[in-house]
Design goal:
single chain, 47% helix, globular, binds pyridoxal-5'-phosphate, alpha/beta, Rossmann fold
Length: 501
């Protein structure tokens, strides 16, 4: 299967899946997209139901990554989603009442859903280097709003032929997220705080990626840049799998009949996770509505409702930092699919020049056919954490709470319209990654600062601390550096690490 840039309107430059994964972002600044969406019919979904998670993953991935063998993909899935790495299962589904289901995506080594992609992606990249005859070292630059950074570090640590630097906003991540990153082990890893927000980090990293001089300089040292952010197709493809898998699990448990539609609710930041659900729907998975949940940074709620994307607005730091985003990169992929490459390119140009664009009526109509959107204030996030714990004895993190809140609103609307569908909400992080905010939401003021709060949360809720987070108790901080938010400062930090012997 060929991949094209979202800005390649003539489809002039096809690349293979391996090449797309290796490169991360297209040379014209666009994102790679498969030339078509493989179709999956009801019989094939029924076939998937009989398989394990890893086998489902190999099947779905092989439809997109046809330059990888099925055996290879199954081997990668087996290694990535092993019981040692995912002791709670890869992507189990929990029940909240009659119609609401929760797809738990945070049972991996860093306790956030990013592990679902970043445990398998280093294997896809290593194989891609071989498949494309690449001899140079891949240097991965990551901008993180908290969870990607740790998941990428954990996935890429000590992988041969790869180095990685992670930039995170100094005051934009939780104490636990910071400790997870700054204590990272591995010879090939580097972590750097920036004095700015996530958009600053992401913009800086994007600018480094398009800096031709820097690319040349690296090339002369036998290094090239690659990306582990969700703009990389190798991040998105593994995320399609768990929507199929959740559907199959619900069929297997008798909760739904094969062919019955489900609605999917996703707490959204960079629009990667929900776009994977959209792809699953386009492939033929029986999905009704896709519900986009945001926090107070509700730019997507506005856009999906009105067709106007306007980033000229306040930026809020919330208790769901992975959704504190004003430029959702993967939205470009949806625009490409719905509006076509010319209009998509035009929107992106307007966004970079004026921070704003408006889509045409036909585009908005198509968006509304597939998506609805809600946002959740800080107050409602806290109420939802408490309400779900009191009502179901089920503990959720602030990101998931935004989605559960949106799911409740969607449920109400469904009832009003007489739509009788099961709702599956993606749960994206362990509550222990955000223990202080979760504790406060439950009405208790933390007595400790920082790491120790997890013990208070465990005691109050009588729930277990995930082992990888408990282990941080004895972790030593390795990375203490911080730089300003300008591109040059990021570039300096990136360069000094890769050039060091
Ligand atoms: C990354 C992340 C999100 C947002 O996912 P996108 O794919 O960027 O939309 C939501 N919740 C958590 C916990 C995350 O780590």
């Amino acid at each position: 299967m060929n991949y094209f840039s979202t800005r390649d309107s003539q489809r002039k430059t096809p690349v293979s899946a391996a090449q797309a994964i290796k490169q991360g972002i297209a040379e014209d600044g666009g994102l790679f997209m498969p030339e078509s969406f493989p179709a999956v019919n009801a019989d094939e979904i029924s076939g998937l139901c009989a398989l394990s998670y890893n086998e489902r993953a190999a099947k779905i991935l092989s439809m997109f990554l046809d330059d990888y063998s099925k055996e290879e993909l199954l081997e990668f899935a087996n290694a990535a989603y092993s019981p040692e790495k995912f002791p709670g299962g890869a992507a189990p589904v929990s029940f909240l009442g009659d119609t609401h289901r929760v797809l738990e995506l945070w049972h991996g080594p860093t306790c956030a859903f990013k592990d679902m992609a970043l445990q398998i992606m280093p294997r896809l990249l290593s194989a891609a280097l071989k498949k494309t005859g690449e001899k140079r070292t891949a240097y991965i630059l990551v901008a993180t709003s908290g969870d990607t950074g740790k998941a990428a570090l954990e996935g890429y640590k000590n992988v041969d032929g790869i180095k990685i630097t992670v930039f995170y906003p100094e005051d934009g991540v939780s104490a636990m997220q910071k400790l997870q990153m700054t204590s990272q082990d591995g010879e090939n890893v580097n972590v750097c705080a920036i004095r700015g927000n996530f958009d600053d980090a992401q913009t800086g990293v994007k600018m480094i990626f398009s800096d031709k001089d820097f690319a040349q300089k690296l090339d002369s040292q036998g290094v090239f840049l690659s990306s582990a952010n969700s703009i990389n197709w190798g991040r998105l493809a593994p995320q399609i799998v768990y929507y199929f898998s959740a559907y199959c699990d619900l069929v297997n448990s008798g909760d739904i009949k094969l062919g019955e539609k489900i609605d999917i609710v996703v707490p959204t930041g960079n629009f990667g996770n929900i776009f994977a659900a959209y792809i699953a729907k386009r492939m033929g998975l029986f999905v009704g509505k896709l519900v986009c949940a945001s926090n107070s940074n509700n730019i997507l709620t506005d856009f999906l409702g009105t067709g106007v994307y306007d980033r000229n607005r306040n930026f809020y730091t919330t208790m769901s930092p992975s959704m504190d985003i004003l430029i959702s990169s993967n939205l470009e992929r949806l625009l490409y699919v719905i509006a076509g490459p010319e209009r998509c390119t035009k929107y992106m140009k307007e966004l970079s020049q004026n921070g704003k664009y408006t889509v045409e009526d036909d585009v908005l109509a198509e968006i509304k056919k597939n998506f609805s959107a809600y946002y959740c204030s800080e107050e409602n996030t806290a109420c939802t954490i408490k309400g779900i714990f009191d009502g179901y004895n089920y503990l959720i993190d602030p990101h998931t709470a935004c989605a559960v809140y949106a799911a409740q609103l969607a449920e109400k609307e469904n009832a009003e319209q007489g739509r009788n569908v099961k709702i599956v909400t993606a749960s994206t992080a362990s509550p222990y990654k955000f223990a202080a905010d979760v504790l406060r939401s439950l009405g208790k003021t933390p007595e400790n600062a920082g790491f120790e709060v997890i013990y208070e949360l465990s005691e109050l809720t009588n729930t277990d601390i995930p082992a990888p987070l408990a282990a941080l108790r004895d972790a030593k901080v390795r990375f203490t550096g911080a730089v300003g938010r300008s591109k040059d400062e990021l570039l300096g930090a990136a360069e000094s690490f890769v050039s060091a012997k």
